[in-house]
Structure formats: C-alpha cells, structure tokens
Amino acid sequence: MMYLRLSVPVIILLANCENSIAENAIVDSSTIKADHAESITTVTSICTVCSCADNYVDCNNRRLETHFEEERWLNITAVKVISFEHNCLVHVTPFPRIIVERLILRRNRIARIDNHAFKELVNLTELDLSDNQLTSQMLQPHIFEGTFSPEAYEPLSNLQILNLGNNVLHWLHQSIFEHIADLKVLNLSGNPFGVFDYRTSIAISSLSYLEELDISYCELRELPNFQFHNAKHLKKLNLTSNQLTVLPKSLEEARTLEYLSLDDNPIRAIDRTNAFPNLKMLRELSLCGMLNLTVIGNGGLSALTGLESLYIQNCWKLGRIEEYAIAFTTTEGTMWPPLKKLNMASNNLRYLPMLLIGRWDKLEELRLTGNQWNCDCDNQYLIGTILPEYGEALMGENEVDELTCSAPPEHAGKKLASLADRHLRCLDLYNARPEKDAAILVGVLIGLLIAIPISMTFFILWRRGFFFCGSQGPGSFSRAFYKRASNDDDI
Ligand SMILES: *[C@@H]1O[C@H](CO)[C@@H](O)[C@H](O)[C@H]1NC(C)=O
Ligand SMILES: *[C@@H]1O[C@H](CO)[C@@H](O)[C@H](O)[C@H]1NC(C)=O
Ligand SMILES: *[C@@H]1O[C@H](CO)[C@@H](O)[C@H](O)[C@H]1NC(C)=O
Ligand SMILES: *[C@@H]1O[C@H](CO)[C@@H](O)[C@H](O)[C@H]1NC(C)=O
Ligand SMILES: *[C@@H]1O[C@H](CO)[C@@H](O)[C@H](O)[C@H]1NC(C)=O
C-alpha cells in the first residue's frame, strides 16, 4: 500500500493524458484504495489525491479529468493557491466557496467553462487559464460573473490578473470583461488574433485600470489606431513576436508606458519617418531579434526622453545606428535621455557614433560583442576613448577582449583594445580600400618613371630621323613644333 501510494505521483509525472490503459488502471486502483482507506473515518478530502500544504493545494500533474465534487473540498476553506496545472481537465464547473487568492488551471484541455464558475471565489486575485483550448465562441462574459445580488451580478472585484495565453482566441466578445473590469494584468499571448477586430479592440479598451498587457505571439499585423485611447494606467506592453512592419500609431496614446517590447517584429527601419512617439515615461525598450531591421536613423528614438535601458540585440542585419538616433534638441541645445543600460550585442554594426550617448560615463552597462566593428578613424572615439576609459567597468575585461576589428584589412582580427593608442587612418571617400588604391598609385608611378625616359628616347631618335615611314619625313610637321622642340635638343 505504502509502496503503491508513493509510486503514483511518479507514474503520473511521466504520463500524459493519452497514456496506456494499463498505467491508468494502476493509478485508479491505488487512488480508489487510498480514498477508501480515508473514507472510513471522514469525507474523502481532495487532499487524498492532491498534496495540501498550509497555503497551497497542489493538484499538479495528476491526470485529473474532472473536477472534485463539492463535498471533497470541505475542509479546504482558506488557502493562497490552488493549482491544477498539467492535468486533463476539459470542462470547468463552478467552484464551491473557498477563500483563495490564486487559481491555476494552466496546461489542461479546457474548452468549456460554466457560467459564473468562479463566483464563489470572492477573494480570487489571479486566474490562470493559459495553455488550454478556449475558443472565442466559448469565452462568454457570463463565465466571469460574480456573486448574485438582487439587482445584478457583482463583479469578481478582487480579480486583478487574468491569463488567457496560448488558447485559440481569434477575437474577444466585446463585453467579455464587464464583470472583471478592474483587471490590472491581462495576458493574451499566443492567441491567433491576426488583427484586433472592433469587438476585441472594445473589450481590451474597456479595461481602464489595465497596467500590463501581454499581446506577444498574437500574429498581429497592426494595431487599431485608438487601441490605447482609454489606457490611462498602462505601464507594460509586450508586443514580442508579432508581424508589425511599422511602429503602431496607437502607441502615441499609451502615454504612461514604462516598458515596451517589440522583439521579433519585421520592422525594417526606425528613423524620422518611422519614429517612436512621445513616450516620456518609457524607461525600458527592447528591440531584439528584429531580423529585418537594417538601420536606426537620426530621430528614431529621440522622443523617448526618459529612456534608461535600451536593448538592441540579435538584429543581424542592423548595420547602422546614426549619431543622432537617440539625442533630442531642446531650447537648451542637444540633450540625451538618462541611459544606464545599452545592449547592442550581436548585430551587424560597424560604427559606434560618439554622440549616440551624451554621457558615456553615466552608463552602467554596455554590450558590444558580436558586431562588425571597423577599426578606422570613424571609430577612433570608441577605440581610443570609450573602451580604454569605461570598457572594463561597463562590460568587464573579458568582453572588452572579445571585441575584434573586422576591417580594414591591416587590422582585421586584431583586438579593439590593442589599438587604443593608435591614430587610426580614415577610409577614402568611397569607403573603398585605400591600400588597393595605393597599389594602383605605386603602379602608375612606376609606369610613369619607366614610360618617360623611354618615350623621350623614342622622341629623340625620331627627331634624328631614325624612323621613316613612307615618304613623309618629320619635316612635314608644323614649323612651330619643330622650332620649340629644337630647343630641347641637348636633353
Ligand atoms: C483536510 O483533510 C485531510 C484529511 O482528510 C488532511 O490531510 C488535510 O491536511 C486537510 N486539509 C486542510 C487544509 O485542513
Ligand atoms: C475575502 O473576501 C471577503 C469579501 O470581499 C472579505 O470580507 C474577506 O475579508 C476576504 N478574506 C480574505 C482572507 O482576504
Ligand atoms: C503570458 O503568458 C505566456 C504564456 O503562458 C507567458 O510566457 C508569459 O510570460 C506571460 N506574460 C506575463 C506578463 O506574465
Ligand atoms: C514578453 O513576452 C514574451 C513571450 O511571451 C516573454 O518571453 C517575455 O518574457 C515577455 N516580456 C516581459 C517583460 O514580460
Ligand atoms: C523580413 O525578412 C524575411 C527574410 O529576410 C523576408 O522573408 C520577409 O519578407 C521580410 N519581411 C518584411 C515585412 O519585410
């Protein structure tokens, strides 16, 4: 018996819902036996199947297919977390009255949730329904109804965090959040929206207290123009891995934004024509893995006057970031945001402009490895000043040592740090390789040095009449020429 009960969780951990009937039988019989043993003395608590600690009812990985009946919850009255992660639940039925803060139902196969399934969980602050099979048709406002009062359903007024990530939502019912209007965090990540249609757009903008919105991996090609019109508190927006090709216009209304991720979107250029709007509160911006991005031009980031952390990493085609990409002008002159962290590792950058950052000494972190740094005079400031003065403090000795020149040929492969004291020469006008030009120049010089005496010799010989072709002698040439040339006779 003891052996059986110990082995059950192990079997379940390895198993998933489709596992063999044989294993199923083992689990079932042991569970039943266990239940039976307990039920002699008291009502079978869910704690015979799940593990109940002080504040945590852990029903994870138990291959449960249905909910427990109400009486099995009897002695669970107040806990912090109830978790049914990674089971085989398909249908969520109403929970009994329990004081619980977090209900985790992620990684099941939930396709159906009964009306007011959570209304007795009045203390619920977080509901995690991610990694399930919820569809747009199924997800109706009544699901989130709170307790009934004579006039109306009360909202689930404590609910602040709702995770609907990784379901199959193409749109949202426009009143889906009417009973949970105080949500602060909404996660819609990993749903195939494509675009937010008017219903979805209205539903999301109805959440006036929203502080955090995760719409990563939603296949979004654009955002509605006024999506954030009502977002007076939105601090964090995650747009990772969508299909945006330009910065959404609606961002300009998200004025309270502090964190923004646009990682992995096919935006090609961020410059004056596709610039960030005025987001004065934005402290952190992530532009990583943008594989179509080739340039960050002057003015592109200039409106982000409060920026503290900028991450531009793994944009393999990003070859250029211009000198005034971040700086902005005020009546007092050119200013820069109070940048502390700048990560520009693993792009295709060749130059780091001197004026990109106002005060390099105010940085706390700098990452530059994995680029195509050119070691010519346009990088003199990076190589001769930034690296020797701040390199070690900002990126550590090892990372400074990893920085190598990829051009020009005479420095290729050398460490940037080894050139700190050199006066680096400039490339010529067309960024061609001057050493090639030099070879041509030397060739031309040698050619001239050889050609001049030879042609002179020929000229003199000709003058003396060594070459006679046909009847025409030198005398038939113009007199003037003859006269002038005769003065050079003794050369
Ligand atoms: C509920 O009862 C079971 C025994 O039936 C016990 O193991 C468990 O600790 C109890 N849970 C709580 C939260 O009191
Ligand atoms: C649970 O919610 C009720 C109603 O809002 C409230 O009276 C009670 O104090 C809450 N209990 C806990 C432990 O938060
Ligand atoms: C949203 O859900 C996805 C998928 O479950 C998860 O990876 C992501 O971390 C969540 N985002 C937030 C802000 O919790
Ligand atoms: C943004 O979303 C992606 C994917 O869900 C996740 O990996 C990342 O951690 C999120 N970023 C933040 C800051 O929540
Ligand atoms: C982004 O780049 C990929 C591959 O380089 C290309 O197939 C795709 O069409 C580009 N997308 C856009 C929107 O430019």
**First-last Cα distance:** 120 Å
Helix content: 10-25%
**Biggest sheet overview:** 14 strands, mixed
Total number of β-strand segments?
Answer: 21
- Name the bound molecules: 2-acetamido-2-deoxy-beta-D-glucopyranose
* CATH 2nd-level architecture of the domain at 44-219: Alpha-Beta Horseshoe
Order of helices and strands: HHEEEEEEEEEHEEEEEEEEEEEEHHH
Which structural category fits the helices and strands? alpha/beta
CATH superfamily assignment of the domain at 44-219? Answer: Ribonuclease Inhibitor
Q: Which regions are unreliable across 5 or more consecutive residues at pLDDT < 50?
A: 1-15, 19-41, 470-491
Could you please say which CATH topology of the domain at 44-219 applies here?
Answer: Leucine-rich repeat, LRR (right-handed beta-alpha superhelix)
Tell me the name of the CATH class of the domain at 44-219.
Answer: Alpha Beta
Shape: elongated
Count of individual helical segments: 6
Sheet with the most strands: spatial strand order = 1-2-3-5-7-8-9-10-11-12-14-16-20-21
In oligomeric terms, what are we looking at? single chain
Tell me the radius of gyration: 37 Å
Report the mean per-residue pLDDT as an integer.
85
In percent, how much strand structure appears in the residues?
A: 5-15%
InterPro entries: Leu-rich_rpt, Leu-rich_rpt_typical-subtyp, LRR_dom_sf, LRR_TM_domain-containing
Protein name: LRRCT domain-containing protein
Transmembrane segments: 438-462
Keywords: Leucine-rich repeat, Membrane, Repeat, Signal, Transmembrane, Transmembrane helix
